[in-house]
Amino acid sequence: MNRARHFLAVASTSRARWLALLEQTRALARGEAHVPSLRGHNVVTLFLEPSTRTRASFELAARRLGADVVDLSPSSSSLVKGESLLDTARNLEAMGADAIVVRHRVSGTPTRLAPLLRASVVNAGDGTNEHPTQALLDCATILAHKERIEGLRIAIVGDVLHSRVARSDARAFAMLGAHVRLCGPPSLVPEALGALGAEVTHDLDCALEGADVVVALRLQHERQQSGLVTSLRDYRMGWGIDARRWRRTAPGAILMHPGPVHRGVEVDSDLADGPQSVILEQVRWGLFARMAVLADCLDGTPTEA
Ligand code: CP
User: Fold this and answer.
1) Which residue, of 34, 181, 187, 263, is most buried by count of CB atoms within 10 Å of its CB?
2) Is residue 9 part of a domain?
3) pTM of the model
């Protein structure tokens, strides 16, 4: 029987588990939580798309919990010889992997993998679908600045269509009672995205008006089809966030971005580096969020190799 506990998507996570993970993230950051020990556990990170923040922080998180970590580089693994992802994961499991942290360009890959393995599967970003640990660290970042998420006006701006961060964030923020606005050009923010529990608008000034939190998104050039964006200059003119537009936000508003930031495209440098920016704080919270997730998934005996 598959007894593994996975972490796959905000959409499949109960509010109770989400709140418990959020509380554990915050307690770990405060240094108040008993740090769970994953000594004797093996964590494998398997990133089939590029990453700086997520990959490094999962590795640091696992080490901080006392686990052994293998970071498998796809380009030098037998994946390039045609071995399937499932066979790769099963071989890792045979060596004693207790958790496999997966990033993949195809939406749904971690969810399809999970029931076929004894190890815990943790989604580190799947295609345009979800990036649930980013949403957890984003919730923790907001709570470090605001008393609660319930009732906040949160604008998520930019290339929502291709953004797994936007989907996970919108679901998590809506689950916690925020009013979420999704904003960008009609080609990148279709009305159907309102199904995430958010208001859809194509007017940036309206989206920013009175916003307590603004999440700027990276323009995902690697996922763009031709014609969705006319030019970077046009995109910046219409959807780039600058100091003039920032004046519409609520007093004390914070600026977030999952990274990597295209300065002068999604957001101007003076804002990204200004007092309203919490972009590097998000990165710091990522370590504690990923510690909380790994400890939650692996709270049990190591997998028998
Ligand atoms: N936020 C995020 O997922 O960044 P990386 O792609 O660098 O991991």
Assistant:
1) 181
2) no
3) 0.95
